[in-house]
Specification:
heterodimer; A: alpha/beta; Rossmann fold; six-stranded mixed beta sheet; 45% helix; 22% strand; B: alpha/beta; four-stranded antiparallel beta sheet; 10 helices; 10 strands; 36% helix
Chain lengths: 292, 269
């Protein structure tokens, strides 16, 4: 089998110290699949999405590995070609809808940018498509919203706009980076349902970065769990929630709040579990250094 | 009077100037944030205050400890009317009511060491045995005393939040307001901080108001739950009642919207 997105042995390291932030990570997302990428802050889950999209911060670099999008290894392309390839095939739904939208531009232009710049559409055609998309993400009165500025809209509305603009150019891959973390729980539910419905309708491959296992259980079919840049578990959602295989991911699940089960959830992660997974990380690091 | 609640709130109203609607010349219109709330917080209770963004939960918290002055109604703390006390008259009350903030990074002075951060309010209130109180506070929150000499940036998120808690309890307050204090933390440190709070409430006999948007966290920690929607209390009952038999439609909506870590959860597809 071959996934639409295939990451092989990806290591990302700080440029100055050489310390690895991602440690030989491999994962596959099949075409049309929704895969969750889970971990605590600093685990490197957003870093994977950034490496795929080619938007890593300047302070880090890819030191080894392959990132296949379809039949092309993005890391072997010259930068201009890579940007073109990624722009035409992949899009991002970012976490914070307020910082992701330009406050001084109307919504319309921000949704049509992608169509005009990447697909080379005429503005009129792009605007007609943007109106359709805003309607598709259930924005009331799309024509008025096209003329609005971001501050005139609620957080939920802004996130809908970012979803519309991510799907605008019909990308085959979307990376959603904590897309509901800044939202109220009732709005989160609407947005998660919307992302799931859009993904199913467009058949998009979706890599869903989140710290919330509750969210994973709602929208994903499979998941990868990261700790300190090391992938510790890679499994299906059905198997994971029945019985997580790795002690760290089991501890993460037991720490996740569950109001229906207040005394068997929110369990602190024990030091023994942390020590064991740290030892795994150290072993992986030693092995990697020895191999070089 | 042992039966008297620690805090009694009657018909509390707060309105603030709506600066987004302010005309160029003239006064901004008033925006009513809290619309006449009445409730008691009994001694030793752990009250969860929950609601969506804009429901007024943080405004309510800040008004309870008189960081804001109400526009109407009364707040009694330990029988004393503190509704309109001025800062000088409030000063001796301040030691008895402390706050823990949401974001420990922005509420801890990055240029001071842990000992100085915890000692600051103690010195301000002229308390004795400052150094010993700092050590005791660190003991209470389960951090080594050697942390006295650390700076906030040298600590993890969970450790920083413990310092915020230590600073509050060092004052030996009767009432603590905790505003979204675990929402910025990873789930593993979230669980540790909640366990710590649970223990401190018992050991120190604290009364706690715990503001959160997360009902799962509230269920674990709180004895009572108050649900706010657009500046009004839509539900105020014992925790088990709120979760087992929610009365308000809004409470049910909040509960149904929580994504439980369970792929077979009903009402979700």
């Amino acid at each position: 089998m071959s996934g639409y997105l295939r990451i092989r042995n990806l290591s990302v390291a700080l440029r100055d110290s050489g310390a690895r932030l991602l440690r030989s990570v491999s994962l596959e997302v099949a075409a049309g699949e929704v895969r969750g990428l889970v971990g605590e802050s600093g685990a490197g889950k957003s870093m994977i999405g950034k490496a795929v999209l080619g938007i890593l911060p300047r302070s880090v670099e890819v030191v080894e590995g392959e990132i296949w999008l379809g039949d092309v290894d993005l890391l072997r392309l010259p930068p201009a070609e890579r940007r073109k390839r990624v722009g035409a095939n992949a899009a991002l739904i970012p976490q914070d809808p307020l910082t992701a939208l330009n406050p001084s531009r109307r919504i319309g232009g921000q949704v049509t940018d992608r169509l005009v710049d990447i697909l080379g559409w005429k503005r009129a055609k792009a605007e007609a498509r943007a109106l359709e998309l805003l309607a598709e993400v259930h924005i009331p009165d799309p024509a008025r919203v096209m003329r609005s500025y971001p501050h005139e809209l609620s957080g939920g509305m802004r996130q809908r706009i970012l979803i519309a603009s991510a799907f605008a150019a019909e990308p085959r891959l979307i990376i959603a980076d904590e897309p509901t973390t800044a939202l109220d729980v009732t709005v989160q539910k609407q947005i998660l349902r919307l992302i799931a419905a859009m993904q199913a309708r467009h058949g998009t491959t979706l890599l869903f970065v989140t710290h919330d296992l509750g969210v994973v259980s709602k929208v994903c079919q499979s998941l990868s769990v990261l700790y300190a840049g090391l992938m510790v578990e890679d499994t299906t959602v059905a198997d994971f929630f029945r019985a997580p295989a790795h002690p760290y991911s089991a501890a993460l699940l037991a720490a996740t709040p569950k109001y229906t089960d207040p005394w068997a959830s929110l369990m602190p992660v024990s030091e023994a579990v942390i020590d064991a997974v740290r030892a795994e990380v150290d072993a992986a690091e030693t092995e990697w250094r020895d191999a070089r | 009077m042992p039966d008297e609640p620690l805090i009694r709130v009657e018909n509390l109203r707060v309105s603030l100037a709506d600066m987004t609607q302010k005309p160029l010349i003239g006064r901004a219109p008033r925006l009513e944030i809290l619309k006449g709330l009445s409730f008691d917080i009994p001694r030793g209770a752990v009250v969860g205050i929950v609601g969506g963004s804009g429901s007024g939960k943080s405004t309510l918290g800040r008004t309870l400890i008189r960081l804001l002055e109400p526009t109407g109604g009364t707040i009694r703390f330990d029988g004393r009317d503190i509704t309109h006390l001025d800062e000088a008259a409030l000063r001796p009350m301040r030691r008895r009511m402390q706050m823990i903030f949401q974001d420990p990074m922005s509420s801890l002075n990055p240029r001071r060491r842990v000992a100085g951060i915890i000692a600051g309010p103690l010195r301000l209130h002229g308390l004795d045995r400052v150094s010993a109180r700092v050590d005791e506070a660190l003991d209470h929150v389960g951090l080594p005393r050697a942390f006295r000499n650390r700076y906030p940036h040298e600590l993890s998120g969970g450790q920083r939040q413990r310092i915020g808690i230590a600073r509050a309890i060092a004052m030996a307050p009767e009432f603590i307001l905790a505003d979204e204090i675990v929402s910025g933390l990873d789930v593993s440190s979230q669980a540790q901080v909640l366990n710590l709070l649970e223990r401190l409430v018992k050991d120190l006999g604290l009364t706690l108001a715990f503001i959160s948007h997360d009902l799962s966290v509230i269920r674990r920690l709180c004895t009572r739950v108050m649900v706010l929607q657009q500046g009004e209390i839509v539900e105020n009952a014992a925790t088990a009642d709120v979760f087992d038999h929610p009365q308000a439609a809004y409470t049910r909506e909040l509960l149904d919207a929580i994504p439980l870590p369970d792929p077979d959860q009903a009402n979700w597809a």
